[in-house]
């Protein structure tokens, strides 16, 4: 067994004293200490506080019966159709059942649908028509296409554009919204028989076409798409 010299014993005692002094000052928990800092959890917390979840989308909520409309709910409708008219009342009724409804936006969509339907009918494109027409209208279009194909007739058609599209009536029928438009378009169209002879229309003349089309959508459905439910050609 070895012996410690005086210097070694002195430093040992001094170390023990310092240890107990530091323990008295730093080693006690008071309950108010901050938890250890974790840079990863801190980064996640800061990000979560400032970033909204990407998969959360706020959708317009349908008003409950008797619930008053917001002050600006009908601003776009009143600017589009004179207040207290039948058209204004019909558009307001649709807005009550479909808060996302906007008359100008509807017309833009209807114009696109009009061109697609006209060209799909000329091309015999049943798939496109099925997505844009109600069952009854689709059956009528398909029957006409089948008749044409049976005779080996073809429609040669070029869509020039839409001169005018106006909403002429709007109403709710149960839970279904109905909007009728008067559409004036320009079209070059000719029907040729099996031999290629023109039997209807003119392949070189732009013709003015006047249609009255009605689109409908079930406002109780999650499907936002409108479908063509009635067609009428103006003289």
UniProtKB/TrEMBL annotation:
One of its GO terms (cellular component) is membrane. Pfam families: Tim44. GO terms for biological process: protein import into mitochondrial matrix. Gene3D superfamilies: 3.10.450.240. One of its GO terms (molecular function) is protein-folding chaperone binding. The keyword rRNA-binding does not apply. It is found in: Membrane. Keywords: Membrane, Transit peptide. Belongs to the Tim44 family. This is Calcium-binding protein.
């Amino acid at each position: 067994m070895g012996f410690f010299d005086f210097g070694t014993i002195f430093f040992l005692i001094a170390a023990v004293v310092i240890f107990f002094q530091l323990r008295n000052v730093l080693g006690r928990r008071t309950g108010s200490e901050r938890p250890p800092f974790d840079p990863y959890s801190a980064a996640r917390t800061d990000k979560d506080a400032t970033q909204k979840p990407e998969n959360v989308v706020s959708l317009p909520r349908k008003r409950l019966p008797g619930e008053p409309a917001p002050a600006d709910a009908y601003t776009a409708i009143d600017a589009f159709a004179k207040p207290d008219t039948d058209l204004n009342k019909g558009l307001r009724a649709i807005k009550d059942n479909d808060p996302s409804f906007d008359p100008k936006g509807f017309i833009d969509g209807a114009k696109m649908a009009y061109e697609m339907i006209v060209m799909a009918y000329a091309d015999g494109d049943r798939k496109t028509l099925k997505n844009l027409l109600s069952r009854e209208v689709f059956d009528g279009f398909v029957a006409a296409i089948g008749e044409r194909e049976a005779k080996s007739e073809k429609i040669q058609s070029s869509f020039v554009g839409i001169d005018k599209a106006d909403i002429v009536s709007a109403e709710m029928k149960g839970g279904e919204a109905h909007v009728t438009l008067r559409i004036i378009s320009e079209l070059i169209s000719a029907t040729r028989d099996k031999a290629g002879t023109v039997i209807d229309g003119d392949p070189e003349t732009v013709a003015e076409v006047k249609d009255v089309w009605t689109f409908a959508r079930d406002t109780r459905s999650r499907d936002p798409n409108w479908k063509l439910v009635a067609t009428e050609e103006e003289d």
